[in-house]
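2024-03-11 09:14:02 INFO queue: dequeued item Glutamine synthetase family protein, len=455
2024-03-11 09:14:02 INFO validating residues
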Amino acid sequence: MEPHKVRTADDLRTLIQQRDLKQIKVGLYDLDGVMAGKYMSREKFLSALDGGFGFCDVVFGWDVGDKLYDNTKLTGWQRGYADAQVRVIPESCRELPLEGNMILLQGEVTGRLEGLCPRALLRRVLERAANLGFEAMAGIEYEFLVADESNEALLGRSYQDIKPLGRGAFGYSVLRNSVNTEFYHGLIQLCEAMDMPLEGFHEETGPGQLEAALGVEKALRAADNAALFKTFAKVLAQKQGRTASFMAKWHQEYSGQGGHIHISLKNAAGNNAFYDPAQPGNISRTMRHFIGGLQQLMPQIACLAAPTINSFRRLVPGYWAPTTALWGIDNRTVSLRAIPGSNKSQRVEYRLPGADCNPYLALASALAAGLHGIEHEIEPDEAITGNGYLLDVAPERRLPRSLWEAAQTLKQSAVARDWLGDDFVDHFAATREWEEREFQRHVTDWELNRYFEII
Ligand SMILES: NC(=O)CC[C@H](N)C(=O)O
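2024-03-11 09:14:37 INFO prediction written
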């Protein structure tokens, strides 16, 4: 039995027996898209496979620095930080080549806190898509920085004067990717072994910025691959004495780091529901309405695509990242790029998500918005042409400018509540408000440099 062939609990038992595994690694993704997990003994794992296991619910109650949220209802001291119930997902089994024979299994939270589990959330949206007669496909691409030094060294200098892997900006440089093969080849091989092959991998336009495009998959698999890619690209870099970062904007002078999502829908006949060769740009009625829904709801779901304080540094004009909820045909100056193609490749690229977002949440919210558009036959604005940054946009097409604002628009969104659930919306918005409060009480370097002496 091979990890990529595992579909059932029995397959998994066979694999564990064949490899004579004494330990198994199990993890689940939190709201920030960070994997929390542990090694489990074989005995414990086999019992978890049948009956699930408990995992302290603080996994949804901590911020990225393990500080406890003080403003959430579903987790907190008032709930005693009880265990959340987790089920093991056999078909999530992956090889962990950096750890010899070890395998990795993902879990999903069930029961009282199921509404907060990012993977369960995406699964619910996909079930609703299936009820509407669609199967969602997605391909996610990441831009990320590789620093040619350890995180300890960077931490010691408070992340100042970062030394990127490769000097200067040389988008698509073959020199860079031929010299830095230890990292490039290492990651290609790792992704291959973990059954999440890269479709493209190149030097982006920024010192040390790389871009990896994961192959198109059914949406849940695409999000699994994306989340695992982020986790294990960081692991590989650190094992090489380097550091990979997926923050949205690590330097004001350089282009930010996107986590763009390419989306299409298959209809019941297995055809691409976005493709209609009789229409301009091959854009079917279904695709138009999907774009219409996503365009209309984008400000309301923006904080799932831009979930950190730093996300909003990326969303500025002139750096290839969008600033408005507009769309165009093959236009990279707006947030929705309709890509004319064939029955196989016709799709829309959602360019709002940064590399810092949780792929389960960004994808679930985009699909919810687009499917809402299909259900309600929402017509998008006219496609824009030329430089979208220069357009004067209507207030309802503006995107939130801060995490606080994004959390407020999410909370007020009836459609987000309908598709993502009240538990999720209330909890997630509270966690983003907490993040903004933490930031607001912090004095930044910029302020010190600007005001300390002169004001
Ligand atoms: N490849 C590109 O289109 C650049 C994207 C840009 N770096 C972003 O932040 O989204």
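2024-03-11 09:14:37 INFO annotate: Residues 143, 255-258, 314, 320-321, 332, 351 surround glutamine (CB under 6 Å).
2024-03-11 09:14:38 INFO item closed
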